[in-house]
Amino acid sequence: MRNKFLSQLLGSLLVMTATPGLAQAFEEINDTLYLENKLAIHLYQASELADGKRALVSAIELPEESIISIDIHNINSALSDATSSPERIRFPFIPPGKTEITKNSAGFACGFRIVDVMDEDIRSDEIMDRTDLCLSLSDLRVTGALESNGTDALKSFNEFMQEGRLHSMNSLSKYVDRLRAERIEFGVIEKAAVQTVISPIKNCGRGCLTVTSEYGMRNHPVLRRKRLHKGIDLRAATGTSVVSVLDGKVLATRTEKNRRTKRISGYGHYVIVVHPGNKLETLYAHLSGFKSKAGQSVKQGDLIALSGNTGIGTAPHLHFETHIQGKRGYVPANPRSYLGSILSSVAWIANLFKIG
Ligand SMILES: [Zn+2]
Predict the structure, then answer these.
(1) Could you tell me the CATH superfamily of domain 2-8+195-354?
(2) CA 51–ligand 1 middle distance (angstroms)
(3) Neighbours of ion ligand 1 (CB under 5 A)
(4) Smaller CB count within 10 Å for the chain: N or C?
């Protein structure tokens, strides 16, 4: 367990300290478009069928008000292909509840990831780690764009959604091309400010921050099932100030409710912040109150919320997640990779024995 943990940590350090050349910088350009769906939609994944044929099959019915993301380049090429070469995106697929392959007319865009879904069971499912999910272009019409790295791209996408025509996508194409050229010319990737993550709990750093539950597989204390705990739990009395660990932008402030009883459950009140300069997303859960709004720019250390005990939990604490940007999108990573230097060495050793 210890070796696995150390190799995870080394992996994260390598990612953080890598100084890519221009060729690599080109590969790593990733401008994320975040979308929220107004109605339930199906996400598909490519599968090989029993007879050896391949088709997209329904991977999940995503409830309304989820957040999905995709690289702007992926959505741009899919929407452009919809008019110029539709055969390229009309993949054979099997509609939900059917067994026969059907041809589709709208086409699909692929490369989606589920960023957030207000359903505990889905949130703990492996589907959340995939970055290759597909969405029928006809379903794009029930999505709305949230804050994104590229405001020009966001504007083009919104025009496309409102007018339902592809002409506005030309400006998105131009934007993407310009962005690539600029980034390669000036090496923006290398110049991006990389800050060190600070404690998400205000004025509580080394010697103060206490881990009450680690990232990793665990028996859920309330639900009594084994599932991946995607964050780290930090002791915090209700009403403690929670701050953004890096410069960034608040993507969403949300409240998870049980879909049947409508009572607050799961993550309770929570905030998601994106930090494009540091290639991270962070999530802060079980809050007692919000002190920030979606779309708001925040500096490292800015107050974003108050901690609490909303949702499913045993005692007041802050549940803190880090999602690291990989080649194909953001994936959950152990927050210890970032908080290691802040957490005291005694807690560090004690927690190593508690894991697994
Ligand atoms: Zn937690």
Answers:
(1) Glucose Permease (Domain IIA) (2.70.70.10)
(2) 43
(3) 231, 233, 319
(4) N
